[in-house]
Amino acid sequence: GSVVASYPYDDSPTHKPTGVYSKSADDEVFRYLAKAYASHHPIMRTGKPNCPGEERETFQDGITNGAQWYDVEGGMQDYNYVWANCFEITLELSCCKYPPTSELQQEWENNRDSLLAFIEQV
């Protein structure tokens, strides 16, 4: 896990594991949507999620192109965009895939304004 808003494409023509910006035809829209979410999140907007074992990982403005972060062949985000014209971003909301119950209220507080800002983009 991490704390970042990721946008298409997750797959790249070279399938290099990381570092390849795979731009979609709607790249500007996806960047805008990802930034709309990230800019309202207290951790995500810093671009420094500080996840255990990945302390040096950073994301400018709290967003990333999926393939630039890591290549995912056959991912749902790309499939929905290509085959259903669905403008979907992936939100990584926590370093921990299964946060303990005691942390859920804080996770909600961290994401509430971001979620509302994202919904307003409709």
Written as H for each helix and E for each strand, in order along the chain, the element string is EHEHHEH
Distance between the termini: 27 Å
Strand content: 5-15%
| Main pleated sheet | 3 strands, mixed
Might you state the CATH topology name? Aminopeptidase
Which strand order spans the largest sheet, edge to edge or round the barrel?
Answer: 2-1-3
Helical stretch count?
4
What level of helicity do the residues show?
25-40%
Overall outline: globular
CATH superfamily: Zn peptidases
What is the C-alpha radius of gyration, as a whole number of Å? 14 Å
- CATH level 1 name: Alpha Beta
In CATH, the architecture is 3-Layer(aba) Sandwich
Can you describe what's shown?
- Keywords: Carboxypeptidase, Hydrolase, Protease.
- This is CBPD Carboxypeptidase.
- Belongs to the peptidase M14 family.
- The protein has 4 helices and 3 strands, in the order E-H-E-H-H-E-H.
- By secondary structure, it is an alpha+beta fold.
- It has one domain (about 5-120): Zn peptidases (Aminopeptidase).
- It has a 3-stranded mixed beta sheet.
- Helix 1 (about 25-40) crosses helix 4 (about 100-120).
- The mean pLDDT is about 95.
